[in-house]
Amino acid sequence: MSTLPALIIIDMQQGMSWPAPDVRNNLGAEAVIAALLAEWRQRGAPIVHVRHISRTPGSPFWPGQLGVEFQPALQPLPHEHVVEKNVPDAFVHSGLERWLHVRGIDRIVIVGVSTNNSVESTARSGGNLGFKTFVIADACFAFKGQDHDGVPRTAQEVHAMALANLHGEYATVLTSAEWLSLSHQAH
């Protein structure tokens, strides 16, 4: 039996790779996610792939669109659990909480996109539902945007603020190197 928590990979769909590199941060996130996925697979630990299915016609994540498909390097294996969601939070109307509880899983590690949207909302729910929740900072990314005051914010600023919102209150935020060191000590 694995000592690793469930790895929850959020929205690593083809449509997430389409925006230009200058509108997002952490261009190495996909490689970090792939390395973590390989680690979980090698150790036989639970993996959950989350896919966003949009309710907005014309969205790249509308059913049947190429954007909704998983990125080839992060494709789920047949025995890995896939959760489909229609809102940012992967726990809402998805059965994820029950799937974890039925398997006795009380710890989760969250990676994916975007840090301030689906990652943050899922981590908040995970923490609120009583799961020991970890977010891997370098295995997530965000997109630039404007704050509520209309001030333009870089993708890194959006990413860093979302992680700050989570750390200590809902989750423990670590780098992949910190996580791997911690998980190998426990193993």
Describe this structure in words.
This protein is of the alpha/beta class and 187 residues long. The chain has a single domain (6-186), classed as Isochorismatase-like (Rossmann fold), CATH 3.40.50. It has five helices and eight strands, in the order E-H-E-E-H-E-H-E-E-E-H-E-H. The protein has helices spanning 29-42, 96-102, 115-128, 155-166, 176-186, and strands spanning 6-10, 47-52, 81-85, 107-113, 132-141, 145-146, 152-153, 172-174. The chain has a six-stranded parallel sheet, with helices on both faces. Helix 3 (115-128) packs parallel to helix 4. The protein is globular and about 45 Å long. Keywords: Hydrolase. Residues 6-175 form the Isochorismatase-like domain.
What structural keywords apply?
alpha/beta; Rossmann fold; six-stranded parallel β-sheet; two-stranded antiparallel sheet; 8 strands; 21% strand; Isochorismatase-like_dom; hydrolase; Isochorismatase-like_hydrls; hydrolase activity; Cysteine hydrolase
Report strand order across the widest sheet.
Answer: 3-2-1-4-5-8
Distance between the termini: 11 Å
Question: Number of folding domains?
Answer: 1
Residue stretches low in confidence (pLDDT < 50, at least 5 long) are none
Based on Cα principal axes, name the global outline: globular
CATH fold descriptor = Rossmann fold
Instruction: Output the CATH class name.
Output: Alpha Beta
Largest pleated sheet: 6 strands, parallel
Q: What multimeric state do the chains show?
A: single chain
H/E topology pattern: EHEEHEHEEEHEH
Instruction: Please report which band the strand proportion falls in: under 5%, 5-15%, 15-25%, 25-35%, 35-45% or over 45%.
Output: 15-25%
What proportion of the residues is helical, as a percent range?
25-40%
Number of strands: 8
Total helical segments: 5
